[in-house]
Amino acid sequence: MKRKAASPRKTAAPFSSCFADTEVLILEDGGISPHDISPMRAGLLLKKIEQHGGTAEVIPANEVLEGRLRAREQRDSKLSRATHVVLSKSLEGKVPALVERLRREKNKDTNENGTIYAPLPLTVGRSCQVVSPDWVSDCLLHRQLVDPRPYLLSLDRAERNEGGDAYTEAATKREEAAEPTAGGTKKARLSHPSASTPTVVSPTHAAIEARLAPFSDLDPTTRDAFFAYGGPLVLSKPFSASFPKFACQRPAPAQHPNRHLTPLFEDLVEMYGLGVGDKERETAFGRVLAVLRAWPWKVRESKELKGIRHVGGSMRAVIEEILMTGRCSRLEKLREDSSHRCLLDLCRVHQVGHATARKWYEAGYRSVAQIQADLKRAEETGDGEEQAGGEVERYLGSTFCTSQRPSMEQLLGILFVDEYSVKMTRCQVAALEGIVREAALKALAARGLGAETLLLQTCGGYLRGKALNGDADVLVSCTQAQGQAGLREEIKRIMQEDMGIDLLILKEGNTMGGFASKPTHEKIASHDNMLTLIKHEGFYRRLDVISPPPDQWAFCVLGWSGSKQMEKDLRDYADEQGLHLSQQAVFRETKRLTNPKSIDGVFHSEEDVWEFLGLKYLPPRLRCA
DNA sequence: CGGCATACG
DNA sequence: CGTAT
DNA sequence: GCCG
């Protein structure tokens, strides 16, 4: 609440001008090992340099190395003008060799095409220094330009003689550059910042955007998310070392750059959960899926993910295979097994999970369609309407033994199996929200409470911005506790009786503010909720209405907003902090202790909860992990 | 080698 | 064991 | 399957 989202930096001027009069070229190499400069790291370096009064530019090393840049003069002039070139240690001394190799390849190409590629010049300006990224970090640390000498790298140490004129020229210039720095020039520059150069111009978002434009495969949403988020990224470390342990510490937008990987991982999660029935494997793949959804650029080699929590050897092997072939043999092998296919099909029925599906499978059922057909046949054999039910009953009794007979809810699930799979657009979800709102307002008005006391929020995938939703999760409460008591029940009545809405109630929670006792926890009022099928625009839609007491509002919204992995990781994270998080409250002490106390204090909004947990707030749309 | 999120019907 | 996130 |  006290937090002001993201713009305190414009008013204050918290940045030094330690990079004043420096023009830095950063060679981004796309790598991820400790000595590489990943696009994200390059972006951070650039941002920091600009924030501290310098100018900087990121050049994808590939462009230099592969000679992809046509505008050779432009590149050259940039290199000559720069005061510093930031180069990863892993590329030290290798640049000319790579350039040379690529030049030869290009020339081979060009002989066929008839075009001639000139060798790329790698001349750096007279007083330009080639340094490792640590130099930037340390300048920031000390708030001044530090002596670059300990950080100097060579572009060409390895192959000085071999290359053409351009390389030796570069080498000479670099040495020329190194010499005077030891003397006067450097001193002048090093003493520079504090003295002159007053105003620090913080670069606009658009400016940063423009500078980062070359990274076409770095999804803009993700990039924005990371820059806006800031988070635990540490400039002096490579990105993989800063990648947070928990999903709740990393922004994950719906449109992420690794959609060449995630669909297959989604299938693996489903297959292990419902098909194979191995929930440990399911969680393992689910965690990697969450990593991929938060990884800010396109993964090109599985080793980029080395060292990331939950991504071990076999996970990287799966990723590598998908990257190489676009397929996952492991998944395909599982899909070949017809029993897995049948189980997945049977699990489409509401109230049927892996265990029930397996029972039905063992009873001889191979698909939902088969059950539907059998039910229909049983219905037809009976004559009158009354008999029909009896036939179905008899049929069910004869084919399913008592323990595995479908419940009423499962029967509904079998009948509505296709309807269940139809997704809603955001408009349609909003329409359902409108219906609940109307009913809620009527209910409150009947108690003499105005619209301003209504708390209403549709959560779930809708709140996270999903375009298509399987259901609508509408949370309803009232700022006045007496307005909330029994509200959900009243909403149901109004929808059915006053508004004439066709509602099939699948499940109803304890009504009228009953108290749920957990053995390990303090008693607190439980949510009043219902799961229904609501007829809307000709379809039965799944509608969840949840009504928590007002003091639980923030926790409830957080708990119903997802994603599932976010919720899991929020709880894991809370545990690590010695806290316990639920949809009702936060608790001190671990869950094992018999008498944990509810935290004192008021949590009005989701932000309050994130802040209390010591987490940087992630808006719902960045919780798509 | 145990644990893997949590609560509720 | 099922549902919800 | 991975982590502590």
TrEMBL record:
<dbReference type="GO" id="GO:0003887">
    <property type="term" value="F:DNA-directed DNA polymerase activity"/>
</dbReference>
<protein>
    <submittedName>
        <fullName>Dna polymerase mu</fullName>
    </submittedName>
</protein>
<dbReference type="InterPro" id="IPR029398">
    <property type="entry name" value="PolB_thumb"/>
</dbReference>
<feature type="compositionally biased region" description="Polar residues">
    <location>
        <begin position="193"/>
        <end position="202"/>
    </location>
</feature>
<dbReference type="InterPro" id="IPR043519">
    <property type="entry name" value="NT_sf"/>
</dbReference>
<dbReference type="InterPro" id="IPR010996">
    <property type="entry name" value="HHH_MUS81"/>
</dbReference>
<dbReference type="InterPro" id="IPR002054">
    <property type="entry name" value="DNA-dir_DNA_pol_X"/>
</dbReference>
<dbReference type="Pfam" id="PF14791">
    <property type="entry name" value="DNA_pol_B_thumb"/>
</dbReference>
<dbReference type="GO" id="GO:0005634">
    <property type="term" value="C:nucleus"/>
</dbReference>
<keyword id="KW-0808">Transferase</keyword>
<dbReference type="Pfam" id="PF14716">
    <property type="entry name" value="HHH_8"/>
</dbReference>
<dbReference type="InterPro" id="IPR036420">
    <property type="entry name" value="BRCT_dom_sf"/>
</dbReference>
<dbReference type="InterPro" id="IPR001357">
    <property type="entry name" value="BRCT_dom"/>
</dbReference>
<keyword id="KW-0548">Nucleotidyltransferase</keyword>
<dbReference type="GO" id="GO:0003677">
    <property type="term" value="F:DNA binding"/>
</dbReference>
<dbReference type="InterPro" id="IPR027421">
    <property type="entry name" value="DNA_pol_lamdba_lyase_dom_sf"/>
</dbReference>
<feature type="domain" description="BRCT">
    <location>
        <begin position="14"/>
        <end position="153"/>
    </location>
</feature>
<dbReference type="GO" id="GO:0006303">
    <property type="term" value="P:double-strand break repair via nonhomologous end joining"/>
</dbReference>
<dbReference type="InterPro" id="IPR022312">
    <property type="entry name" value="DNA_pol_X"/>
</dbReference>
<feature type="region of interest" description="Disordered">
    <location>
        <begin position="162"/>
        <end position="202"/>
    </location>
</feature>
<dbReference type="InterPro" id="IPR037160">
    <property type="entry name" value="DNA_Pol_thumb_sf"/>
</dbReference>
